[in-house]
UniProtKB/TrEMBL annotation:
Record-given protein name: DNA ligase
Cofactor requirement: Mg(2+); Mn(2+)
Location of the BRCT domain: 599-677
Keyword Membrane appears in the UniProt entry: no
PROSITE patterns: BRCT, DNA_LIGASE_N1, DNA_LIGASE_N2
GO terms classed as biological process: DNA repair; DNA replication
């Protein structure tokens, strides 16, 4: 029997996948893979082929620069091939690149690099004859492209006639650059496509590529493509007679009438390049177009010429990319987590993968609907995404790589923690354990009770809560208040001193205000803001218990769903028992005396507020409602009459105006402090 080695299978898998992705991208204009993912798979294949050279085949995606153009446009041969650039993914790889070219040019002492932002668009080649644009072509496979002259003419930042003052004898020149869609235009296009029921573009790059290859150039004109030039070729002439360096070439391009990205920089060393790369890693997010890296080129043309090209890349340039936000990995297990509301959340446990600078090995799968929609199975290769602070999530499954023996994932019928039957109410995506004494729910409720925005009991962390529940020392949050130093000392690795500290911290929480207690109870939909809104109308737990659902709903900022949840929670006997126990323990179930009075005399009376920007937890309307409840006035514009400006993130002109007028600024925490004081 012939044994197929795993590496042979993997190489085959990778090739197939990359080819499918290329076809979808270049021929169909309907990408199925993010570029970062493509890069990563491509590199894996490259590495495997380096390790096992006998596996290299002539049809491997690594053996050619690009793919064939689609057939609708006329194919044209580039006078000078458009090479793609070698990628580096960090400064170490950049150093390796430098060492490599230096071995080839050992006599070079000092060096200059030109750093340019890598715009996420589509490379095009422009030909000018006697200063007139005669041809525009896509990159295609680098040797053959497509004639898109009609479309290129619609791009307003591309000059149809060059300004050749002093260079009139230049017969033919070639200019390369990036056609791209500004982010705002990209968004508009997708909005229009959505309204029209058309498929959305995955990203600005694909939108630009798709637009350039539109057969109807009137559509192209409407799409408002833009262009940055970055390469100047003067065939048949000695470049040095006009410009000696890339830096000069960029200046010349600008003089001729091209748009050159203004953020390029001349660097005298690799550390300087690294600094530029680091600076733009965050700063690029403020640009009105997408960038995905930095292009580093040797400045001197003579040195470029000396180094020349490999089969695929110039040796004198490299694309230093920013880390991928998406990456492929394999699902090793699907675990089910039970939260404090009893909700069962499936989690993918994956082979660890580097994503945006962190190692990711778990991703939320949200609920069973989501799993069914994606059809994620144990053993699948999936794409995980991490966007900003959001928990990593699985974006899609690479069905092509699915092993033959997988089975669809089925949500458990019983709670994985307590073993009781779980419930999925009709119309709800969430499956829940409804066993009130389920250990998972209990642990979750206690963790919520002690959390910072609730009773803020320092020292009681997840580990301790698990110990307490598992040992049977605590069956409800009320039991926390019956814990003694002696009892805590029985726990593993618990000294007398820390036990006393915990007892003190728990006792301290009895001073926390009614609003925090209400929030700590963990009623569904009642976040800390809603808890404050509720306690400002209902000063005591008796008042809230007695409130009609319609009255609760009448509070500004409280919706029907919240009102129903609150109303029902207080109807449950077990919850009333809990309140009684906590009250006996000494927790606050009424607003402090002065707050009750001050609501009458309105502590913010006579003060005028303006709220601007995005606040960390409050919606702007909620902040306004809180201010108004305390007697303050809220206006929309800043003037001399404004007393306070409540400022969140991305505050604009209002903040500037307030600063100019010397108005007191408050952040959300300060506002809440004033309201609670
Ligand atoms: Zn359970």
């Amino acid at each position: 029997m012939i044994q197929i080695q795993p590496e042979v299978k993997r190489v085959e898998e990778l090739r197939q996948l990359l080819q499918q992705a290329s076809y979808a991208y270049y021929v169909l204009d309907a990408p199925i893979m993010e570029d970062a993912v493509y890069d990563q798979l491509y590199r894996e294949l490259q590495q495997m082929e380096t390790q096992y050279p006998e596996l290299i085949a002539p049809d491997s995606p690594t053996q050619r620069v690009g793919e064939r153009p689609a057939t609708q446009f006329t194919s044209v041969r580039h006078n000078i091939p458009l090479y793609s650039l070698e990628n580096a993914f960090n400064v170490d790889e950049l150093r390796v690149w430098e060492q490599r070219w230096r071995r080839q040019a050992p006599t070079v002492a000092s060096v200059e690099y030109v750093c340019e932002l890598k715009i996420d668009g589509s490379a095009i080649a422009l030909t000018y004859q006697n200063g007139i644009l005669v041809r525009g072509a896509t990159r295609g496979d680098g040797v053959m492209g497509e004639d898109i002259t009609q479309n290129v003419r619609t791009i307003r930042s591309i000059p149809l006639r060059l300004n050749l003052a002093g260079l009139e004898n230049l017969e033919k020149i070639e200019v390369r650059g990036e056609a791209f869609l500004p982010l705002e235009v990209f968004k508009q296009i997708n909005e229009e496509r959505q309204k029209a029921g058309e498929q959305l573009f995955a990203n600005p790059r694909n939108a630009a590529a798709g637009t350039l290859r539109q057969l109807d150039s009137r559509i192209v004109a409407r799409r408002r493509l833009d262009f940055f030039a970055y390469t100047l070729h003067i065939p048949g002439m000695d470049d040095a007679s006009i410009s000696n360096t890339q830096w000069e070439a960029l200046e010349l391009l600008q003089k001729m009438g091209f748009r050159v990205n203004p953020n390029h920089k001349l660097c005298g060393s690799l550390p300087e390049v690294a600094e530029y790369y680091k600076y733009w890693d965050t700063e690029r997010l403020n640009l009105p177009y997408m960038t995905d890296g930095v292009v580093v080129k040797l400045n001197l043309f003579k040195l470029q010429e000396q180094l020349g090209f490999t089969q695929k890349f110039p040796r004198w340039a490299v694309a230093l990319k920013y880390p991928a936000e998406e990456a492929p990995t394999r699902v090793e297990n699907i675990a089910v987590n039970v939260g404090r509301t009893g909700a069962l959340t499936p989690l993918a446990e994956m082979r660890p993968v580097q994503l945006a600078g962190t190692t990711v090995s778990r991703a939320t799968l949200h609920n069973s609907d989501r799993i069914a929609q994606l059809d994620i199975r144990i053993g699948d290769t999936v794409i995980v995404r991490k966007a900003g602070e959001i928990i990593p999530e699985v974006v899609r499954v690479l069905q092509e790589l699915r092993p033959s023996d997988t089975e669809p994932f089925v949500m458990p019928t019983h709670c994985p923690v307590c073993g009781q039957l779980v419930v999925r109410e009709s119309g709800e995506a969430v499956t829940r354990c409804v066993n009130a004494s389920c250990a998972a729910i209990l642990k979750g409720s206690i963790e919520h009770w002690v959390s910072r925005d609730a009773l803020d009991i320092k020292g009681v962390g997840e580990k301790l809560v698990h110990q307490l529940v598992d040992k049977g020392s605590v069956h409800s949050v009320a039991d926390l208040y019956e814990l003694t130093k002696e009892k805590l000392c029985e726990l593993e690795r618990m000294g007398e001193k820390s036990a006393q500290k915990l007892v003190d911290a728990i006792a301290q929480s009895k001073n926390q205000p009614w609003s925090r207690v209400l929030y700590g109870l963990g009623i569904r939909h009642v976040g800390s803001v809603n808890a404050q809104l509720l306690t400002q109308k209902y000063f005591t737990v008796e008042q809230l218990t007695a409130a009609k659902q319609s009255d609760i709903e009448g509070i500004y900022g409280i919706g029907a769903e919240i009102a129903q949840s609150v109303y029902q929670w207080f109807r449950i006997d077990a919850n009333q028992t809990l309140i009684e126990r906590l009250r006996v323990a000494g927790l606050q179930f009424a607003a402090a005396e002065e707050t009750t009075i001050s609501d009458g005399n309105q502590k913010l009376a006579g003060k005028t507020f303006v709220v601007t920007g995005t606040l960390p937890t409050l919606k702007r309307d909620e902040a306004k409602a809180l201010i108004q409840k305390a007697g303050g006035k809220v206006t929309d514009s800043v003037s001399k009459k404004t007393d306070y400006l409540v400022v969140g993130e991305d505050a604009g002109s209002k903040l500037e105006k307030a600063q100019a007028l010397g108005i007191i600024q408050l952040n959300e925490a300060q506002l809440l402090e004033i309201l609670e004081s």
